[in-house]
Amino acid sequence: MSILRVVISGPRGKMGQEAVKLTEQNEELELVAVIDYKHKGVNVSDIVNTTQSCPVFATAEECFSQVEADVYIDLSVREAAYPNSLAAMTAGVRPVIGATGFTDEELATLEATANDKKLGCIVAPNFAVGAILMMKFAQMAAKHFQDVEILELHHDQKKDAPSGTAVKTAQLIQTEREGKPQGHLDEVETIAGARGADVDGMRIHSVRLPGLIAHQQVMFGASGQTLTIRHDSYDRASFMSGVHHACKVVMQLEEFVYGLESILD
User: Fold this and answer.
1) Domain topology for 4-123+237-263
2) Taking the mean position of all CA atoms in its chain, how far away is CA 102?
3) pLDDT digit string (tens) for 144-193?
4) Is 158 one of the catalytic residues?
5) Rounded Cα gap, residues 63 and 208, in angstroms
6) pLDDT value at position 1?
7) Per-residue pLDDT at 214 exceeds 60
8) Annotated catalytic residue 168
9) Top CATH class, 129-234
């Protein structure tokens, strides 16, 4: 069995803690370092509840200059994930990125870097397999239902809106749906934003509340019927099977991949 040497960014975050647990629970993954700007020079077990032992580095550059790794996992925020992933690829390490909110230019740079260096790099707005199926089912339904609205619901600490999952869902739907206005032609928003974001006429609505984790429903409408496709993540552990799969697949890639659906059988 080949063991993958893993570096994790943001180990104290809620998703980062789950990633640390993932490496602890799988013999295929070895945690060799973590990146945490507040705790340079200590051991990971000093800052996270884990039996594992590895150094903590303040920056990606410092980490990758001192530690040999295969995969870099970043489930934190775009502001850290973008430069750190570029640093990882510069060092020949393959990124698995779950942060969202990247600009088109940033994604293009990540893609160009991965392709130029012939390194696998996976950016996935959602690592829950059920969420990926929800998006694919929505894409299939869009062939038959032209009117659709997306409602995404997340915890109140999420910074970007709409979510990366909602954006990716809309992009998949766009491959099967021609843009068209929805609702009354003379529709007026008496309060700005009431109808949500407009993507080729389909609407995306973002909810942010404490108590939520990650949820999305895609609602299609046609004469005399509606179709609702919904996925709910009640625990962040739901994302880890997808992260584990991505870590294994990224080692076989020599290019950039956007979306977990691209690497699922």
Assistant:
1) Rossmann fold (3.40.50)
2) 10
3) 999 999 999 999 999 899 999 999 999 999 999 999 999 998 999 999 99
4) yes
5) 35
6) 56
7) yes
8) no
9) alpha beta
The reported pLDDT for the residue numbered 13 is 92
Query: Going by DSSP bridges, is the β-strand pair 202-208/197-199 parallel, antiparallel, or unpaired?
Result: antiparallel
Question: What residue ranges do the domains of the chain occupy?
Answer: 4-123+237-263, 129-234
> Is 237 a residue whose pLDDT tops 60?
yes
Catalytic option among 39, 154, 215, 244: 154
Q: Is 99:78 a contact under the CB 8 Å cutoff?
A: yes
Count of C-beta atoms within a 10 Å radius of residue 75 = 26
Q: Which of 39, 158, 168, 245 is catalytic?
A: 158
pTM reported for the whole predicted model: 0.83
